[in-house]
Amino acid sequence: MADHPVLKPRPTLADIQNYIGQANTYRAHRTDLLYCMLLLCEETGELAKAVRKHIGGKMDVAKPEAGGAEEEAADVFWLLVAVCNALGIDLEQALRDKEEKNKMRIWK
After folding, report:
1. 75 C-beta neighbours (distance < 10 Å), count
2. Which of 92, 100, 98 is nearest to 17 (CA)?
3. What distance, in Å, lies between the first and last C-alpha atoms of the chain?
4. Left, alpha or beta for 62 (phi > 0: left; psi -120 to 50: alpha)?
5. Is residue 67 predicted with pLDDT exceeding 90?
6. What is 53-84 written as a DSSP string?
């Protein structure tokens, strides 16, 4: 069996996007668009719950502890990249293109 892919130190967004694609393949994770999108929605909800806990919101203490905000944010990021990979989106370029549009907006 091949070694698990390694994320190099100080990666670019393109490096991260490539690493996540390789890691998902290595781990035999499903990478089809619908499945990744559903997981992204699920993990976004878990991040919202972690943020609610962070700000002192009431929680069901009888349920097992969920991951902290750091872990949930990482999961959301991972799955956003997986969705972009499934769509063939270069996330860095998409961000740059969108920021050019945002610069032209009038924010009030």
Report:
1. 18
2. 92
3. 56
4. alpha
5. no
6. HHTT----TTSPPPPPHHHHHHHHHHHHHHHH
